[in-house]
Amino acid sequence: MNLLLAEDDAILADALSVQLSRAGFTVEHAPNGAVAEYLLLKHSFDVAVLDLGLPMVDGMTVLKRLRAARRNLPVLILTALDSMEDRVAGLNSGADDYMCKPFDFPELEARLYALLRRGQSQGDHRVEAGHLVFDREGRRASVRGESLELSPREWMLLDLLLRERDRVVTKEQISQDWAQDRSESSGANSIEVYIHRLRRKLEHSGLSIRTVRGLGYLLEASTAVA
Fold first, then answer.
1. Which of 60, 84, 127, 209 could form a disulfide with 134 if both were Cys (CB 3.0 to 4.6 A apart)?
2. Considering only the top CATH level, what class is 124-221?
3. Are 111 and 104 in contact, with CB atoms under 8 Å apart?
4. Topology of domain 2-121, CATH
5. Cβ neighbours for 21, distance < 8 A, ≥ 6 positions apart
């Protein structure tokens, strides 16, 4: 598994390279944003770990240019920037996960493997269901040609429901999928709130989210009994 590590702190980069190599990754190190951008656009990687505070070209710019080139590479941001605004900006710019320094390596390793598993299970980047078009690579969604505005958690929820279409998705699955995202608060009723919001946004899509009592939620054609 080829991994790009974009990190300007030489000591941290060396330590991470050793640990990631032991974890089964072949690591390519980029000490600045310019090198990271070049490697990401010219070479093939399975996953990338990207610091935001890179010299020459900052990490957020590298990420945006990567997504503008329609590269669907899983990207985990690893940074000291830990405000909610930074998290939201990173996820909205196309990051698949966001971790703050300091961190524990076992968690980083687990998240990287989770990203790889998710990428393998997603299959096609573009999904068409009913009148919904869901573009994972471009991080865009539309209903009947009209852009669908989704928050980070709404995006993750819809992505999960589409991956598990015609199968019940439990609240535990949703909570696990959301565990990487701390950009929005989680309350006892947060899942129900997001399901309600998503139902409204999918109103004219030809799809519906059915509550399966005691089990979870099911995405299906809206002609089914809700």
1. 127
2. mainly alpha
3. no
4. Rossmann fold (3.40.50)
5. 27
